[in-house]
Structures are given as structure tokens and as C-alpha cells.
Amino acid sequence: MSPSRCMFKGVLHWPNDTMTQLTYSDYLKVDELIDLQDPRSEPEEHDELLFIIIHQTYELWFKQLRHELAFLMERLDQDDVPRAFHTLKRVLKIFKTLVSQIDILETMTPLEFESFRSRLDTASGFQSYQFRVVEFMLGHKRPQPMQFQPEGSIGRELLEAAYHSPSLWQVFLRYLQRAGYTVPEDVFEVDVTAPTEPNETVQDSLLRVYENNHQLSELCELLVDLDEGLQEWRYRHVKMVQRTIGTKGGSGGSSGAEYLMKTLFKPVFPDLWDIRARIGVAT
Ligand code: HEM
Fold this sequence. Notes:
Pfam families: Trp_dioxygenase (PF03301). With 283 residues, this protein is mainly α. The chain has helices at 24-28, 30-33, 48-77, 81-105, 110-117, 129-138, 154-163, 168-178, 186-189, 200-212, 214-245, 257-261, 270-274, and strands at 4-5, 12-13. Strands 1-2 form a two-stranded antiparallel sheet. The relative contact order is 0.10. Residues 54-55, 58, 105, 113, 124-126, 128, 131, 237, 240-241, 244-245, 250-254, 256, 259-260, 263 line the site of protoporphyrin IX containing FE.
């Protein structure tokens, strides 16, 4: 019998000799992966597995987002606009997936969630360090998320690194400057740990981009899509929270939906929203 080419490039799969060949399960560590769900309810509540798998899936997508956003910044630093476009489009598709996954969790009724909720103890998505890293990479910087990650932990390390690195917006502004648009130096001189603030000179430059640089304005529109994607996730998450636990407090110790409502409609790229009212208006 002749060997057949496996889905993994260059690996030959012999039907009668699987022991010595790389298999799908070996490569993807499937045995370990499907052993990582550890429901805490006793007897096990049916819906807890879904709750765990959804959250683990989110964490995997957050990892991929960190990977893609880092690559996007690197490509912009290298003035590699085609790859930056390509990567940004992939990031947007991941955000769409993050939002649509909420539909699955919303099939869980308040009663079904209540059946195992106490088992979550104080665990909450609020403590997701990867989500906070993504926020930091997009420029939503503040020191508070660090306090939930013990010194020396992986989460703390990743958060500190993202906190002390330029955000996607700062990297984009550097690119804008290299492309010949006025971006005041003080935008870069502020502490990288500061949150993104709107800037009038930047907005004037962005208006010029929208008026006469089609390719760059398309890139700006993708950044608006990304900003809207994060806001969309926050909105869908809060609606899911409201329909599942109503006005109850969160397991992470916050006021729950009331707290989450305050995080809505806050853009990460405020300049791109502020200019909208001026686009096409003669000055
Ligand atoms: C039934 C499902 C869910 C409920 C009832 C719920 C509830 C909550 C609540 C009440 C908070 C506020 C913090 C606190 O716990 O006090 C919160 C925050 C958060 N949750 Fe969820 N959540 C659910 C599903 C998810 C999923 C699937 C994810 C995906 C990772 C997630 C990620 C987050 C994040 C990142 C925050 C922090 C948001 C922020 O501070 O801006 N949650 N959640």
C-alpha cells in the first residue's frame, strides 16, 4: 500500500503504521485539549460544559488576536500596507466570530445558568488578562487590570509588556507621519501607558487623508470597523448579561450589567469618530 499525503505538509501517513507517524491528534494535542474542561458542579449540570468551552474558545481567539495585532503593528512599522490590510481584515473576521459566539451562549436560560453559577465563585471574565492585553494593544490603557494578576504570573507579564508598548493607534500615527501627514511630536512624547486622547491636528490630517488618499482612508475605515467590532462585542455581552442575570451583581464583585453599561460606546480611536461630522463639509 502506498503512503497518502496527510493534511500537514510533508508528512506521510501510512494506514498500517500510524504509531510512528505524526497524527492529527498529536499535532493539535487533541487528547490534552478535550481534557481541559473541568466542570465544578456535582452532579454535573448539563450547561456548565458549554459555559466552559465558550470561554476557552474566546481565550484562544484572544490569543490569536494578540498574535495578529502584533503582526499588524510590525507590518505598519515596515510600511507594508498590503499585509497590514490583509491582517486587519483577518482581525475583523475574528471580531465578528467573537460577537456571533454570544448567540450560542444565549441559548442558556437564566435557570440553567443559575444551576451552576455559585460554582464560579469569584471567577469572572473581568479577570481575563488576554482581553485586557487586546484592550491595551488598541490603546485603552489604565493600570487597574494589572492588580488582578499576581506578580510573576504569565498574565502580569503579558499585561506589563502591552502596557509599556505603543498602541496600534500610535503605530498608525507614526505611519501617517511617514506618509507625509502632520502628526505633532507630542503625540508620541506622551507616556506610552497613557490612554489615547483625541488630537485636533491629527484630526485635520485625517480629514486630508479622507479627501485625497483613497487607500489610506480605506485603512482608516477598517480601523473604524475594528473599533465598532469591540463596541459591538461589549454591547452584545451586556445584553447577554442582562437576559441571563438581570440586575444581579457579577461574580467578579462588580455591580454587573450596571457596571458593564458604563463601558459601552467608548471608542478606542476617538479621532476617527470625531472627524465624521466634518467630512465633506467645506471649511
Ligand atoms: C452567561 C454568560 C456571562 C455572564 C452572566 C457574564 C457576566 C459578566 C459580568 C457580570 C461582568 C462584570 C464583572 C463582574 O463579574 O463583576 C462580566 C465582565 C466580563 N466578561 Fe462576562 N459574562 C458572561 C459571559 C462571558 C463570556 C463568554 C466572555 C468571553 C470571554 C466574557 C468576558 C467578560 C469580560 C472580558 C469582562 C470584562 C468587561 C469589562 O470590564 O469591560 N463574559 N461578565
